Amino acid sequence: GAGVSQSPSNKVTEKGKDVELRCDPISGHTALYWYRQSLGQGLEFLIYFQGNSAPDKSGLPSDRFSAERTGGSVSTLTIQRTQQEDSAVYLCASGVMIRSTRDGLSYEQYFGPGTRLTVT
Amino acid sequence: QKEVEQNSGPLSVPEGAIASLNCTYSDRVSQSFFWYRQYSGKSPELIMSIYSNGDKEDGRFTAQLNKASQYVSLLIRDSQPSDSATYLCAVPRSYIPTFGRGTSLIVHP
User: Fold this and answer.
1) Pick from A50, A104, A112: CB nearest B43
2) Which residues of chain A fall short of a pLDDT of 50?
């Protein structure tokens, strides 16, 4: 079946420009996550959506970063006034709940192919 | 102490050997544990999940969980060169999985 898709796959932009990154999750998955991964680094959590709500925005690096999700489906991550340190691969993951435990709901995550952002 | 720790490696094993990847975590209340595989230049792919103490087998992969000692491991039997990748351990804290930095595995012919 269809997996998670992200667009564009590559984006080169000039410092100071705004960019929008899109994520189409797996149909029926209620949770959606955004991460970024710099070269040779681990995954950095950015934001989590449950439906259209974002109960946890703690990972957004600055107020230049924002995200929304509409219709419980597509999500857009917007970076305003891009800086060179924003260069990274931005990954979206679609989450399906697999169990409920005393520490909360647990989701299996399925990642999209990512968007490689280069800020020149 | 980092929440999820993995040896960065690289772990180098010969083809056909057993590769053993380890992960320790700090949050005692964690109940779910995941292993992801990430090939160079690709996104992570879920390969195993485990929730109960003991072993869980899936093909050549076995996940082992010991909650008392707060570690989870992944064994890969009959390692193949195609298994060469970075293996990420993920331990949820509430809704948010915390990922380790990953262990690089190299399987040489």
Assistant:
1) A112
2) none
Contact B44 A50 (CB under 8 A): no
DSSP B100: P
**Residue B30, pLDDT score:** 81
**Out of A101, A109, A112, closest to residue B31 by CB:** A101
B98: closest CA of chain A, how far (Å): 8
For residues A93 and A29, give the distance between their C-alpha atoms in angstroms, rounded to a whole number: 10
DSSP state letters, A2-30: ---EEE-SEEEE-TT--EEEEEE--TT--
CA distance A6 to A117: 12
Instruction: State pLDDT tens for residues B12-33.
Output: 999 999 999 999 999 888 888 9
Taking only the tens place, the pLDDT of each residue in B85-104 is: 999 999 987 777 789 999 99
Strands (E), chain B: 4-6, 11-14, 19-25, 33-38, 45-50, 54-58, 61-66, 71-76, 85-93, 96-99, 103-108
Q: Which of A99, A109, A110 to mutate to test the interface with B (most CBs of B within 10 A)?
A: A109
